[in-house]
Specification:
elongated; transmembrane; antiport; Four Helix Bundle (Hemerythrin (Met), subunit A); mainly alpha; 809 residues; 2% strand; MrpA_C/MbhD; three-stranded mixed beta sheet; 3 strands
Length: 809
């Protein structure tokens, strides 16, 4: 069943961009309270979405759209089903807390208003992405997340590391963006559809298409780059150069989850094949282990959490690849649990750094007494990451083990990878939760104290949400998890979550093994870190990116120096050679001269090269044009050449005028007048009475190019005039000029309406050329003054006068 909600859903998706535009002004007016007001926007969106939980849980799908490009049948449509609702609730709910946190974290920063603008635009881009029903709109919002994240990661533009991290994230994710564009176009070419609502019934068409492999490769490239899967994982840790509010939002609910969302959304139409399952499970499990081990190498709290995000994204990808109803239920549960505890832990890390002056694990300890509320938030989130009972993380872990505890080699291998990965993540969760807060107090760079209220609201509420959702697991499973898993699966998924824990279940014992391993990893964390740091790091993906990037920069510089050498003469030679080839090659190789050949073979060249029937004055204008051309070629100095060029161009304008094209004639007159004036002004920098002597080989080269261009244009015109006149285009302009464009002058209508952007481009080029010429003329240096003539007889030197001292006024 579908509900048409009009423009309300569309306005909710576009609204954050409007508020983002107003954020700097609001911050300037309200100063320290602007973040409290701006946080109401995502909070209102969250409340609005909560009203759809019941209808979506009962099987309803909310659709809304506005006309986008009606001529092409495109509508900007938005879709709210179980999957998009789960993501949108996470984005808006966590987004409201992030805005509050950012206002306190960057309090007093001179660019806080700009930061809040970028942050709200980032949230709007992600909301638009998960709500888009149109594939082209999805691509548009996909690219907007890359641009807004680039602005946020590089917010502290004075630091080289921030600039590098922003550029790296933009380059990698844009590679995937191009892959997504290719995939979207291929999907439309196969199915003829632009919307997900129509694609849900086209799965077999895509899977049976010969282009299925190409579509799959394009979608996987987009998802793997966005969600930092091996081998594109390296950009995510470098994105930690962004302020902590960005990291908390980026890693929990926004850009890195976009690739996961894309894979989940495409599962009904691309999933279910062996290659889909194999690729997602293998790469997902490899990314899980790699990221978890990478977290143990670190001592920086943000870097540890960033590496665990890579691992968690790999886990989500593997669950999507498994594709069973239980695995997809586990995917939804783990997505929600991870978003809650990861955002809270990043906020905790930022609070520790903000109030203690460091986030290095080896320089922290005993903060629980001085930052008790922060410690409570860390404990709630860390326990969910460790997946103890009474947290949502526990149910997510139980669900992902449920289908894998069978005696089947592939299932056992995947189960071992998940157990090891979850154990590593649990160990890191214990480290982040315990090491900075418990144990003996350590002197920190700043006297540690509790963070402001706006920085504490997020960790406490998100940490508590992980517990509350676990206590209400029946409601959560029925109203949120089941509809989302159903949307991913394409078929009904029922919730079986409850507090009736079966102690004989193999999945529970797999969880016990996971906990024991996690505790062991926590206790041996220092030894494991030392061991992992012995791994050779001389060459990795991050350094490979630098090598490729700087190699590309050097290659571009070499190409630029080769092609843009500053010699205008060679530029013109290349341009006209290209023009001659573009005209002659199709005529000679693609049958362009077929219309002339029958007549020529009969020897009747007169029918082809017949003399026109002109009046004497018309022949006079043609003769004047030829005379002007001869004068240009034989001019004995530059001034005569400029004047002769004007004569030749004026003759062409008169030909246009005589043969019924007054508009073209007027344009030609204006161009010729301006050309002569500009050439005269420019040439005043040179001596106009000199003759430009050129080597014989230059005459031969330029003459050959000129003849080739002239012959090509002449043959093209002859071919056109020999064939029948196709009047479809002129008939179209004649029929639509007045009723559509409201102009009786067809030429003007074509220039202004039908070719509006082209004409604007031409005007811009002429304007830029005029400005450049004006600058050149104004920068002309005055001629040097003649040297003074020396006196015939030197005068005797005078004795210097004694100057009187004058007191200052």
């Amino acid at each position: 069943m579908e509900l048409d909600q009009g423009a309300s859903l569309a306005l909710m998706a576009i609204g954050p961009f409007v508020v983002a535009a107003l954020a700097p002004l609001l911050h300037r007016l309200l100063r320290g309270f602007s973040h409290w007001l701006l946080a109401l926007v995502p909070a209102a969106i969250f409340a609005f979405l909560c009203g759809y939980v019941g209808p979506v849980a009962s099987g309803e799908v909310v659709v809304a759209g506005i006309d986008w490009v009606p001529a092409l049948g495109l509508r900007l449509t938005f879709l709210l089903d179980g999957l998009s609702l789960a993501f949108a609730l996470t984005i808006s709910g966590i987004g409201a807390l992030i805005v509050l946190y950012a206002g306190a974290y960057l309090h007093g920063h001179r660019h806080l208003g700009r930061f809040l603008m970028f942050l709200l635009a980032f949230m709007g881009a992600m909301l638009g992405l998960v709500l888009s029903d149109n594939l082209l709109a999805l691509f548009l919002f996909w690219e907007l997340t890359s641009i807004s994240s680039f602005l946020l990661i590089g917010f502290d533009a004075d630091r080289q590391a921030a600039r590098r991290g922003a550029i790296q994230a933009l380059v990698i994710t844009n590679i995937g963006g191009m892959g997504l564009l290719v995939g979207v176009i291929l999907i439309n070419s196969i199915t003829g559809s632009w919307t997900f609502a129509e694609l849900l019934g086209s799965g077999d068409i895509l899977r049976n298409s010969g282009l299925y492999g190409n579509v799959l490769l394009a979608i996987l490239l987009a998802a793997f780059t966005k969600s930092a899967q091996l081998p594109f994982h390296f950009w995510l840790p470098n994105a930690m150069e962004a302020p902590t509010p960005v990291s908390a939002f980026l890693h929990s609910a926004t850009m890195v989850q976009a690739g996961v969302y894309l894979l989940a959304r495409m599962t009904p139409v691309l999933g279910g094949t062996a290659v889909w399952t194999t690729v997602l499970v293998v790469f997902g499990c490899a990314t899980l282990i790699w990221g978890a081990l990478g977290a143990l190498r670190q001592t920086d709290l943000k870097q540890m959490l960033a590496q665990t995000t890579i691992a968690s994204l790999g886990l989500l990808v593997a669950l999507i690849g498994l594709g069973t109803p239980v695995a997809l239920s586990a995917f939804v549960l783990y997505f929600a649990a991870h978003a809650l505890y990861k955002a809270a832990l990043f906020m905790v890390a930022g609070a520790v750094d903000h109030e203690a002056g460091t986030r290095d694990l080896t320089a922290l300890g005993g903060l629980a007494d001085r930052m008790p509320v922060t410690f409570i938030g860390a404990a709630l989130a860390g326990l969910s990451m460790f997946s103890v009972p009474a947290t949502l993380g526990f149910f997510a872990k139980e669900e992902m083990y449920l289908d894998l505890v069978v005696m089947e080699p592939t299932a056992i291998a995947v189960l071992l990878a998940l157990v090891l990965g979850n154990a590593l993540l649990g160990g890191v969760g214990l480290i982040v939760m315990i090491r900075p807060f418990l144990g003996p107090a350590v002197a920190t760079p700043k006297a540690a104290h509790e963070a402001p209220v706006a920085m504490l609201v997020g960790p406490i509420l998100l940490g508590a949400a992980g517990v509350v959702t676990a206590l209400l697991i029946d409601w959560f499973g029925h109203d949120l998890m089941a509809p989302a898993a159903t949307a991913v699966s394409g078929q009904g998924v029922e919730s079986h979550l409850s507090w009736n824990i079966n102690f004989a279940s193999p999945a529970l014992w797999a969880s016990v093994v996971t906990w024991l391993l996690a505790v062991l990893i926590y206790r041996q964390a220092d030894s494991l870190r030392t061991l992992l740091r012995r791994w050779p790091a001389n060459w990795n993906a991050d350094r490979a990116f630098d090598a490729v990037f700087f190699g590309l920069v050097r290659f571009s510089g070499a190409v630029t120096r080769t092609l843009h050498h500053g010699r205008l003469e060679l530029y013109l030679v290349v341009v006209f050679i290209g023009f001659a080839l573009a005209v002659l090659v199709p005529l000679l190789t693609m049958g362009g001269l077929d219309a002339l050949m029958p007549t020529a073979e009969l020897g009747n060249w007169g029918a082809v090269l017949r003399w026109p029937d002109l009046m004497p004055y018309e022949w006079g204008v043609v003769a004047m044009a030829v005379a002007g051309l001869v004068a240009v070629l034989t001019a004995h100095n530059r001034l005569v050449a400029i004047a002769a060029l004007g004569v030749q161009g004026t003759s062409l304008a008169l030909i246009f005028l005589l043969f019924g094209a007054p508009d073209l004639a007027f344009t030609q007159f204006m161009v010729e007048i301006l050309s002569v004036v500009i050439l005269t002004l420019v040439m005043t920098r040179l001596r106009l009475d000199e003759l430009d002597k050129r080597p014989f080989e230059d005459w031969v080269r330029d003459g050959a190019i000129a003849l080739a261009c002239g012959i090509g244009v002449s043959l093209t015109l002859m071919v056109i005039l020999t064939g029948p006149l196709d009047t479809r285009l002129s008939d179209f302009f004649t029929a639509t000029s007045v009723p559509v464009a409201h102009g009786a002058n067809i030429v003007n209508v074509i220039l202004v309406d039908y070719r509006g952007f082209d004409t604007l481009g031409e005007i811009s080029v002429v304007m830029a050329a005029g400005i450049a010429i004006m600058v050149l003329l104004k920068s002309r240096k005055a001629p040097p003054m003649p040297a003074p003539t020396p006196d015939p007889e030197p005068k005797p030197a005078k004795a210097p006068r004694r100057r009187r001292k004058v007191a200052d006024a």
